[in-house]
Amino acid sequence: MEIPGTGNRTRVCLHGLGASSGPYFTGAAVHPALAGHRTLLLDLLGFGISDRPTGFGYTLEDHADAVAAALRAADAYRTDLIGHSMGGAVAIVLAARHPELVARLVLVDANLDPAPPVPQPGSSGIAAYTEEEFLAGGWRRVRDRVGPHWWSTMRLAGREALYRSAVHLARGTSPTMRETLLDLPIPRTCLHPAQDGPPAHADALRRAGVAVVPVPDCGHNIMLDTPDAFATETARALANGTTGTP
Questions:
Q1: What structural domains does the chain harbor?
Q2: Has this prediction a pTM greater than 0.90?
Q3: Closest by alpha carbon to 206, among 190, 217, 218?
Q4: Cys-Cys crosslink for 154: which of 18, 162, 215, 221, Cβ 3.0 to 4.6 Å?
């Protein structure tokens, strides 16, 4: 989905695991604080309204390269990349592998580290199955655990795409997403729910020049829980390069 605007720099929104960029980011893209720029709401391969190829690997690197191809096709270079959850992990990998495509990063409660191997509704819970178990019926148990809100978009995902993306997100990258983020030479902002406290190793992020910004009155889905605060902090990050106190 493309939201037209008059701003010179394209903004690109990437959703999280089992999500879709339209439902999660349209409200933010048209918010007065963020409106007026060309904005691409991009569904990763396997999710939302994108194709669901069963032969695709769905590693974070695969997702990043597929997004890079889409951005080049859209003539979108030096973009402002806004990534939520798994989309933030993909955004970090994309910025490292295709630096000409990314000028600034805004990471929204993004995955920076491999997930601990404990049963949870998200990536680690899905990755606890084998692919055969998941496709044979494990997805139904995941559906029952995640609840109707998340399932409303998760049900649109290809099951191979959902499983493999979860496995690779839980496994992470080498170097880790966090280590890659620390080395990126571009403005970077991490938004996180204030109620969760600072993210792990926040001081190291700040020392590397990453702005770490708490957003009050929200959970993991910051852009949906508190759209005004999300739009304000994101606009500040994109206007100034960083927001908050590095």
A1: 2-115+174-240 (3.40.50.1820)
A2: yes
A3: 190
A4: 18
